Amino acid sequence: MTLPQLAHLVALLETGSFTRAAEMLHLSQPAFSRSIQLLEGELGASLVDRIGKRNEPTPLGRLVGQRARRVLAEVEEIRREAEMLAQGETGAIRLGLGAAPSALLSVPLMQHLMDQYPKLRVKLSRGPTESLLVSLRERVLDALVVHVRTLDNDEDLEVAPMPALSSGFICRLGHPLAGQAQPALADVLRYPIVSTGLSPEIRRRLAGAAAPGGFDLHMECEDISYLLDIVERSDALYLGVLASARALTKLNRLLQLPAPQDFNVQAHFAFVTLRGRSVSPATRIARQCCFQTIQDAAGA
């Protein structure tokens, strides 16, 4: 039994035709048929039922076909791993980022790769987790950094949790709440709240504090820079990862409000790859940089 024979069987099962399968593999039909016959002879049973022009798998054919696909996929992964190791630090990384990870990681990651790995190519994509996951599963992206709350418990994902980051409220200098030692959550919610999105749990907690009027975000946007610009120009408050606004708070353009009582919130991001897919050296380099950047932000 050889790998080409297994590939021939998979092609036959996918096309249902000796002629089309042979053409697809650029083989003569007699040579293709002989390959299938040799495989059947080795296994001692038919793999397809030849009914006129139709070729349908036997129960054994379906079983062998399923395993053949797995074997061929593993062989392809071995080839891919060898190619990636040969590339070393000259490969490419295609990384998808959620809103807050994009604000935190884009510049440090690109700067790090430019300085330390100038031959590495990088492509960053930003968007909602749902669309990023589609791109990951279609192999358009190599990895994602997104909020854990936006992920489902999908068995095809390898999820590596990152250090937790503090979340809270950001306001402009001179905001009516800026002088309070610890504003009550109900007082905070009297002002417009803007964010990249909130988990159901946080929404419930805010709705309870805002009762009886309930709670809803005044503005929701994937681009944190837009939200912080609005906060700097109005009495709106940004609710999200505090490190996202650190550059502006250090410049005294924005101010971090003290956390309201019983409202200490953390954000949990994760580095996500496809389970069973080989991780390239470029992806490992990006992963290490992302973890270090988040660790630094958590400790700052």
Automatic annotation (TrEMBL):
The record's listing under CDD domains reads:
PBP2_LTTR_substrate
Q: Which UniProt keywords apply?
A: DNA-binding, Transcription, Transcription regulation
Q: Which Gene3D superfamilies match?
A: 3.40.190.290, Winged helix-like DNA-binding domain superfamily/Winged helix DNA-binding domain (1.10.10.10)
Q: Which InterPro entries match?
A: HTH-type_LysR_regulators, LysR_HTH_N, LysR_subst-bd, WH-like_DNA-bd_sf, WH_DNA-bd_sf
Q: Which domain of life is it from?
A: Bacteria
What PROSITE patterns does the database record attribute to this sequence?
HTH_LYSR
Pfam families per the record? HTH_1 (PF00126), LysR_substrate (PF03466)
UniProt domain HTH lysR-type: residue ranges: 1-58
Family according to the record: Belongs to the LysR transcriptional regulatory family.
Q: What is this protein called?
A: LysR family transcriptional regulator
